[in-house]
Structures are given as C-alpha cells and as structure tokens.
Specification:
The chain is mostly helical. The chain has a domain of 62 residues: Recoverin, domain 1 (Orthogonal Bundle). The protein contains 4 helices and 2 strands, in the order αβααβα. The protein has a two-stranded antiparallel ribbon with strand order 1-2. Helix 2 crosses helix 3. It comes from Sparus aurata. This is S100 calcium binding protein P. One of its GO terms (cellular component) is extracellular exosome.
C-alpha cells in the first residue's frame, strides 16, 4: 500500500478500535472520544480534557446525536492535521 493508503487504513482502524466500546459500534460517545483523544493525541490535548471533549463533541456533532460518527471524526483529524501543518515552518 502507498503511504496515503496506509494512513487511511490506520485512521479507519483507530476509529473502529474506540467506537462501540460502550455503545454503538459505528460512533464514538463522549467517553470513547475522550479515551481516543487521551491515548492517540496526548501531546495535543494536555489540559482540561473533559471540557475540551465536551467542546469538541458539540462542534463535531453535525447531526445532533451527541456522538461522533466516522465522517465527523475525519473532520476532527483533518482540522487537527491542518492546525499542526500550519505550525510547521514553511520551506
């Protein structure tokens, strides 16, 4: 697989690992989202994680079901990737 295909597969596997641990297998509830963020992005979310998860869930929950589905998760990852990329020095 190419690097991009590998990245996509890892993204899908990561979501599937955390989704459904406590509820529906195709979405992340608040606890699952918090666990994913704590384990997979510890350097990005160091302080007041509970408040940040609430804020993230509200911002990502486009359909209003109080959970984050895969499409909403991809938006989160893309937004964080863009934010990190913007911090990198331009060549």
């Amino acid at each position: 697989m190419t690097q991009l295909e590998t990245a996509m597969a890892i993204l899908m596997k990561t979501f599937d690992t955390y989704a459904g641990a406590e509820g529906q297998k195709d979405s992340l509830n608040k606890a699952e989202c918090k666990n994913l963020l704590e384990k997979e992005l510890p350097g990005l979310l160091k302080t007041s994680l509970s408040y940040e998860v609430d804020k993230l869930l509200k911002g990502l929950d486009f359909n209003g079901d109080s959970e984050v589905d895969f499409s909403e998760f991809v938006v989160l990852v893309a937004a964080l990737t863009c934010a990190c990329h913007d911090r990198c020095p331009k060549k």
